[in-house]
Input
Amino acid sequence: MIRSGRLLALIWLGFGALFAQAKDAAPLAEDPLTEKRLLAITAELRCLVCQNQTIADSNADLANDFRREIRKLIAEGKSDQEILDFMVARYGDFVRYRPPVKGTTILLWAGPGVLLVIGLAVLIRYLRRRNDAIADTELTAEELQQANALLAETTDKKPQ
Output
């Protein structure tokens, strides 16, 4: 019974393999030069759905729409910069993977550095206060006597 089940499973897998064929990826554009331009432009633009992928890398429906729109603009004879400007005008600077440095995007560029400096300043201040607190702490005579007694006990118990 088990052998016939395995045989049946193998037959189904064999039929599945006959019909499952890998297909070549469809070119993004008919012309290789247009395809190269399309890849270069889409590598500069962020997928608004995925946000961590370029339009070239994304499989989202919106990314497919963007590629179709960019392909159409290339066919109309627009330059790469005109296409990028069109996308920025339509979706804002966020659509660019490397937004330009200007007043509205300065926080994107300077923010990580500012946060690093603030974090280091807070860390240094904390460490200095902690060291000052430790240095200012003095043991009372009773605490010193207890510490010495504990040290004497541990040294006496060491195996020879």
Summary: The chain has two domains: 26-95, 106-149. The chain is about 65% helix and 0% strand. The chain has a mean pLDDT of 82.
